[in-house]
Amino acid sequence: MSFRTIPTIIMQTWKNNDIPDHWKESISSIKSKMPKWRHVLMTDEDNRNFISEHFPDFLEYYDKFPHNIQRADAIRPCWLYVHGGIYMDLDLVVQKNLEELLVNSGAHFVASGNISHTITNSFMASEPGNPIWLEYIEQMKLAPPFWAMGKHMRVMTTTGPLCLTRVINESTQSHTILPNKLLMPCSVCNISRCDTTKSYIKPIKGQSWNDWTSHTLNLCMCKWRELLLILALFLLLLISYVLVPQL
User: Fold this and answer.
1) Residue 210 has what pLDDT?
2) CATH at 110
3) Collapsing DSSP states into helix, strand and coil, what is residue 43?
4) Are the beta carbons of 155 and 66 closer than 8 angstroms?
5) 81 and 69 in a common domain
6) For the whole prediction, is pTM greater than 0.70?
7) Do 194 and 95 share a structural domain?
8) 221/74: higher pLDDT
């Protein structure tokens, strides 16, 4: 199957039609680098209407999500199941035409640049009617695991990359995992200095849904060596404080 079986549509979503200036580059890059593809922007209102029309049994779950980012996650597999094409986040800019990457059968995913053995849901593609999207939607109906504390982990495990990764690991549907060096060469730890000259897309300012739990987890992930050193020094000082009076 060639990329022609994937409809030439790229969908993105935002809360309304007033796109922040720093993300307008994403839309203009699509129109410039992929002129034969139709761009669709779905608003929050569009998304709910779409779920109501095509997935009425899912609407109750959709409405009950406590965070809007979960609804923004949820529309992605729903749209791709009905229409196919590409979904990509607004904080991604196309640098090269993506068609030559979409050559295998089944859905296409990208390995995360942040967490090893994890699949990002910021870029996904397929033909319409792919059953893996129904599996993703069913997974979104489940409660978060007990250990998912705080907004960040609840989003990640219920609708985000950890949820998607679980679906892919359990699915029997054929799919392609594209290497992150082609599409996601940067992580939150090096986004300001990573080399994107050879990648098909590059990241720009994003993480609009992040809260303090996100920033704390990112700090731990990016600065774990420094944090371990600080902890070791603290324990050393504590031991010294406890033992010195006894000498």
Assistant:
1) 54
2) 3.90.550.20
3) coil
4) no
5) yes
6) yes
7) yes
8) 74
